[in-house]
Automatic annotation (TrEMBL):
PROSITE patterns found in the cross-reference section: ATP_GRASP (PS50975)
Pfam families registered for this protein in UniProt: ATP-grasp_3, preATP-grasp_3
Species name: Gimesia alba
Protein name as annotated: Carbamoyl phosphate synthase-like protein
Keywords: ATP-binding, Nucleotide-binding
Lineage: Bacteria, Pseudomonadati, Planctomycetota, Planctomycetia, Planctomycetales
Record InterPro entries: ATP-grasp, ATP-grasp_PylC-type, MfnD, MfnD_preATP-grasp
Length: 359
């Protein structure tokens, strides 16, 4: 089996701005983890496109390249990446597309791979298009009485009256928290409103709710879903939104975990096209932690993969490319605590679980 792994920011498909630096770091960590796991599958070969300026030469990869199990296609410009992307999709058995939602990138690259005849792992196009648009996702969830954060579309001055303050402004198609802005009162919003101009309908406004930020994952296949242990998201608002990694598993009561899993299962039942590795961002409101809210649905690989792969002896990548239905249930080492940074670096702490066992 040959797997083509395309991580957009690492691939050389675009010029990188200063704002892309954090996303590139996350993308590199995910790509490294995915390729490593794929190479541990017997008889699996991997193809990747890598921008020429990016270092991607671990000992594992050098050895795999020498054994012709890893083909690294060095890319100098976006036109070259497009040609190599097309060729790889046509020759690979499986295409694994990792891309942010903004500018329709995840949709367009997935659609292109499908047009070229590739078997693409992950949600179907309809599900990607819906979940990548935060406004459309809000409408979908609300129509089905699935609890989520109240949301209004930024269209005119009435938005300030409809919104609660403090509030968050988010791009409808944003990723990684880019473009999030926290405003404390309506006057701040009215001052900022003219800056958005004709693009105001590309943004949503949500109340800033106090609570615990969590994330989890569903590994879905036909007729089967595996729900991962929820993890804690670490976020700083000191100088705007800053994602600071997380801890897996989060310290939660069993009934809270159960309420999160029940909510996510309801979403998946309403949207059966959510196949493969799907990330969910969850808020546990301080006002009622037993009533979790859906914040976002990420129809792609998320940074949490680097943590979850350390919390199990099973190969997550193998289940993603082959489909999880032919495997036994994942076995989690919940006595471990995995702390991961946005750059993919990890810290393993077992002291908490050992102390708990002594009690």
């Amino acid at each position: 089996m040959n797997v083509f792994v395309s991580e957009y920011l690492c691939s050389g498909a675009c010029e990188l701005s200063q704002e892309d630096a954090s996303l590139l770091t996350e993308g590199t960590a995910m790509l490294d983890a995915v390729v490593t796991d794929l190479l541990s599958i017997p008889d699996c070969t991997v193809t990747v496109c890598i921008r020429e300026s990016l270092s991607f030469v671990s000992d594992v990869f050098l050895q795999a390249e020498h054994l012709q199990r890893l083909q690294i296609l060095r890319v100098t410009n976006s036109e070259e990446e497009q040609a190599l992307f097309d060729r790889a999709c046509q020759t690979a058995d499986v295409a694994w597309i990792i891309a942010p939602e903004f500018d329709g990138l995840l949709v367009s690259r997935t659609e292109r791979a499908l047009q070229l005849g590739a078997r693409v792992v992950g949600p179907d196009l309809k599900s990607i298009q819906l979940t990548a648009d935060k406004w459309k996702l809000f409408e979908f969830l609300s129509e089905r009485d699935l609890p989520t954060i109240p949301t209004v579309l930024m269209q005119d001055e009435l938005t300030a009256l409809e919104a609660s303050f403090p509030c968050l402004i988010k791009h409808r198609f944003g990723a990684g928290g880019l473009g999030w802005e926290l405003l404390s009162k309506a006057e701040n919003w009215l001052k900022r409103r003219p800056d958005f101009g004709d693009q105001s309908s590309d943004y949503i406004v949500q109340p800033f709710l106090s609570g615990s930020s969590l994330s989890t994952v569903v590994l879905a296949d036909v007729g089967r879903r595996e729900l991962f242990p929820p993890g804690e998201q670490r976020v700083s608002w000191e100088s705007g939104f800053a994602y600071q990694g997380g801890v897996i598993p989060a310290k939660l009561e069993l009934d809270v975990v159960d309420s999160i899993h029940k909510l996510i299962s309801r979403v998946c039942e309403q949207l059966p096209g959510l196949v493969g590795y799907v990330g969910f961002d969850i808020l546990l409101p301080d006002a009622d932690p037993m009533k979790p809210l859906i914040v976002e649905v990420n129809p792609r690989l998320t940074t949490s993969y680097v943590g979850y792969r350390q919390l199990t002896l099973d190969n997550l990548a193998e289940r993603i490319v082959n489909g999880s239905s032919c495997y036994s249930a994942l076995k989690w080492e919940l006595e471990r605590e995995i702390e991961f940074q946005p750059d993919g670096s990890l810290f393993l702490n077992q002291s908490r679980s050992l102390e708990e066992k002594k009690q």
